[in-house]
Amino acid sequence: MAMLEVEQLVKRFPVAGRGDDRSVLAVDQIDLSVAQGEFFTLLGPSGCGKTTTLRCVAGLERPDGGRLVLDGRLLSSSTDRTWVPAHRRGIGMVFQSYAIWPHMDVFANVAFPLQQRANGRFSRTEVRARVERALTVVQLDQLAGRRATQLSGGQQQRLALARALVMEPPLLLLDEPLSNLDAKLREEMRFEIKRLQHELGVTAVYVTHDQEEALAISDTIGVMHDGLIEQVGPPDEIYLRPTSRFVAAFIGSGNFIEGSVRRRLSDSVEVDSAPGVLRTAEPRREVSVGDEVLVLVRPEHVRLVPDLQDESSDAAPSSEPTPWAGEIVDRAFLGDAVDYVVRVGDRPIRVRSHPTMRLEIGQRVRLQLPFEHCLILE
User: Fold this and answer.
1) C-beta neighbour count of 68 within 10 angstroms
2) Is residue 138 domain-shared with residue 211, that is, in the same domain?
3) What are the pLDDT digits (tens) for 110-162?
4) CATH number at residue 67
């Protein structure tokens, strides 16, 4: 069952400083369906329309077209001019800015929506229990009596998260909520947010430009680009089976190799490229011999072996194309991995290997590209 349905959503903004009717199309007829209890992430670069989409759902922006439906309730429709204002939608939202009350202490900030918006539905005991639970989850329970202005930036962001969650809304919207936290706390909070979302059963729509964050926290990711949604799917599908070059390049890193189809095999395709012949997985679209194609190979999927000048010792199986010979021209130690740049002919190929493999710049190597990890992009 869909908790949130976004149909043909359009949002335009007027061009600043112009007297005519020109406008910028920020969101271009996008469709989304978020299931009940799902953690859905809108991922994309700055200016792609993800925050505008979130603000339209929250009621902070009025769409120029389309429909918004929350749990069967129509929130917005351009055809019959339906418009439910933000304060009547019952949606929780955490902004990129803190938006907390500076004159209140931590406890009062979290209790505020329970006291003001619940119309006396909760007793003092229930308010205290809910507030204490929310503060414990965001690791602020020891600071309940501290003034909000005495918190660090990261603590203030966590306070904003607790205040949004305390009402246990049917839909929680989060706009880059971890951007002001340090790297270690940000990593911890990813799992805390996900755990709490599952505990409460709340549906969440999360906006971020951080690919690692999106992959770690999401049930489903929608990748946005120039006001459009390029691809929607679970994190592993988005990463391993991207449908376009933009998605492949934005989610992680990759080698993009141009070539032409050499021949079709029963379960794969052989491609001629400048670095050499490679075999790819069966593509999603139909390709014929001679077709120009673009192949994606992730750096961690390239096998790197020293060139020992022994053709028999490290040759690929007979069913695979001959390994590519190259020279290491750069390397970077990353702690849990080592990134190499290998020049094959005139082409640099990125390879990510385990840190126990220690190869030096200038060393000759061979690259093996397992066909199941070589993907022809649509």
Assistant:
1) 25
2) yes
3) 998 888 765 667 788 989 998 998 898 778 899 999 998 898 877 887 888 88
4) 3.40.50.300
